[in-house]
Design brief:
The protein is α+β, with helices and mostly antiparallel strands. It contains 2 helices and 8 strands.
Length: 137
């Protein structure tokens, strides 16, 4: 279990799991692959693309924070139920801060950071995009 790919019409971008910091989230996320979702640009949390219709992960919070680094991937688990980010998934392509704690469980490969920035800018300027998630391979 190393990571996952995202694919759009123009991009294939690789991410590596935080297997030490978020092992439960990494295993649960892998069990969802492959899946496809429509991603939007965030309005208030910074340079982030996100979806509020992520496949549900019935797990606890781990490695959870509102503070992220560029390139990190976050997921809102179902627990605790009060969380505003349940079933949300975000990918930060630059500076940002979440609205509520999410599990930070992966980060873009350094070599693919420019591709991620280009995807974020494209979604910001042109609107939504469908993204396919699959096992890194």
């Amino acid at each position: 279990m190393v990571g996952f790919n995202i694919k759009t019409t123009d991009h294939t971008i690789r991410f590596k799991f935080y297997t030490v910091e978020a092992p439960i989230t990494c295993v649960a996320f892998t069990s969802l692959l492959p899946f496809k979702r429509t991603f939007f640009h965030a309005r208030v949390s910074g340079q982030e693309i996100w979806t509020d219709k992520a496949p549900p992960l019935d797990i606890i919070q781990e490695n959870a924070s509102v503070f992220t680094d560029p390139g990190e991937v976050v997921y809102g688990p179902l627990k605790p139920a009060r969380a505003k980010t349940s079933n949300c998934m975000g990918i930060y392509y630059g500076e940002g801060r979440g609205l509520d704690c999410c599990n930070i469980f992966a980060k873009v490969f350094e070599q693919d950071m420019e591709l991620l920035k280009a995807l974020g800018e494209e979604i910001w300027k042109q609107g939504v995009q469908e993204i396919m998630f699959s096992v890194l391979g």
